[in-house]
């Protein structure tokens, strides 16, 4: 996400955005993206900055500080592998300090998925069922979170879905913010509104009539906050810690999920922000650009400076169109001159294994293929007309397009 304004800003700016003047007695924005003492761009990669004081700390010092909180928010840029590594480090360290007393809440699952998440926690969901659950709730990208899920599963750490259900979201679209059946929604925070309106690329008239993307954002954050508050009052977790994994936008400055959860149940919380200040040239197209907004708040408790690292592009492909099924990956189409065609894979085959190991879904197959290189031989186990068939072939690079 692009950087905010690094200049001081008076409250009149908010009036220009259409924000109410009352309650905006604070005249200055916190510079350096909510970091008053240090420019985050001057930190070295891997350094952790305590934002309220400008003191650089070690990971252990940070963990010692935040481990006293009931709720620890760790933001993310969804496709940054380094952010997910940091999230896992926080979970792992808290589990070491408080074994059996840690719960993880994730934006990537809806509240309506909780029954199935409980089954997964009890070891009653197959890997295929869990991957399908993730895909239904969030979409593609489970491989980004696989180390986290593996750790939660191995250590029997409960996983809680935070996000609003599809039913609730449809209720909002049909009836607006005040339709019965929605969580209590506060739309009065001027800084949250200013930042959000800049993100959406437009101004706001404060009208609650009709549907606006900002209303959906409010519903998401209020639903996640309500789930956090329910955790705090749950007799099953009287002295547990919750680690909340959510997009950085939902936790930075505290006015998203943290403030909305605190409004419901006052409690101690900490905000850790995996922070990227330099985006590589080849990833500039992923940068979100919007109008600068000055916010008179610390952006969090700790900023952990990281590189921006995304999964490598999908270089190795079989050249098939697939449909995920319970009994395998159904081949819908085989591309001409593809690796699959050369190997003898046919339409209506069911792909079940790669190099002897079962594949759960299309995304896992693609991910595992990337561990190979052109010129290597792979074996694919198929079911064809209710018969087991194994084919193999050398992975070849597709011919380059004359337009590339």
Automatic annotation (TrEMBL):
Coiled coil region boundaries: none
InterPro entries assigned: Cofac_haem-bd_dom, PDZ, PDZ_sf
Domain PDZ as annotated: residue spans: 318-386
Gene3D superfamilies listed in its UniProt record: 2.30.42.10, 3.40.50.11550
Name of this chain's protein: PDZ domain-containing protein
The species this protein was found in: Nitrospina gracilis (strain 3/211)
């Amino acid at each position: 996400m692009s950087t905010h304004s690094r200049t001081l800003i008076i409250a009149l700016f908010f009036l220009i955005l259409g924000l109410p003047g009352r309650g905006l007695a604070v005249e200055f924005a916190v510079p350096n993206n909510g970091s008053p003492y240090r420019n985050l761009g001057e930190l070295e990669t891997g350094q952790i900055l305590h934002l309220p004081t400008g003191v650089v700390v070690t990971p252990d010092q940070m963990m010692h500080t935040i481990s006293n909180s009931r709720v620890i928010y760790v933001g993310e840029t969804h496709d940054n592998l380094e952010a997910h590594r940091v999230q896992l480090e926080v979970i792992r360290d808290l589990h070491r300090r408080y074994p059996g007393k840690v719960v993880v809440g994730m934006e990537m699952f809806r509240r309506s998925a909780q029954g199935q998440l409980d089954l997964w926690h009890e070891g009653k969901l197959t890997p295929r069922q869990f991957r399908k659950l993730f895909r239904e709730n969030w979409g593609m990208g489970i491989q980004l979170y696989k180390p986290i899920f593996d750790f939660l599963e191995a250590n029997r750490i409960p996983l809680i879905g935070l996000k609003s259900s599809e039913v609730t979201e449809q209720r909002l679209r049909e009836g607006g913010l005040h339709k019965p059946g929605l969580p209590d929604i506060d739309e009065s925070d001027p800084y949250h509104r200013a930042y959000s309106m800049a993100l959406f690329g437009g101004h706001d008239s404060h009208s609650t009539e009709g549907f606006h993307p900002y209303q959906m954002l409010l519903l998401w954050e209020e639903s996640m906050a309500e789930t956090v508050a329910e955790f705090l009052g749950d007799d099953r977790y009287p002295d547990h810690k919750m680690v909340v994994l959510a997009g950085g936008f939902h936790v930075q400055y505290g006015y998203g999920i943290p403030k909305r959860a605190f409004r419901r149940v006052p409690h101690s919380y900490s905000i850790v922000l995996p922070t990227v200040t330099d985006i590589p040239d080849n990833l500039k197209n992923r940068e979100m650009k919007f109008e600068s907004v000055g916010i008179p708040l610390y952006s969090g408790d700790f900023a952990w400076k990281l590189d921006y690292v995304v999964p490598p592009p999908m270089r190795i492909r079989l050249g098939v169109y697939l449909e995920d099924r319970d009994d395998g990956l159904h081949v819908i189409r085989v591309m001409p001159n593809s690796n699959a065609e050369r190997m003898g894979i046919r339409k209506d085959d069911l792909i079940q294994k790669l190099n002897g190991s079962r594949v759960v879904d299309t995304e896992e197959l693609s991910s595992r293929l990337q561990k190979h290189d052109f010129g290597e031989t792979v074996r694919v186990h198929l079911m064809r007309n209710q018969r087991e068939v194994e084919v193999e072939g050398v992975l070849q690079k597709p011919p380059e397009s004359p337009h590339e």
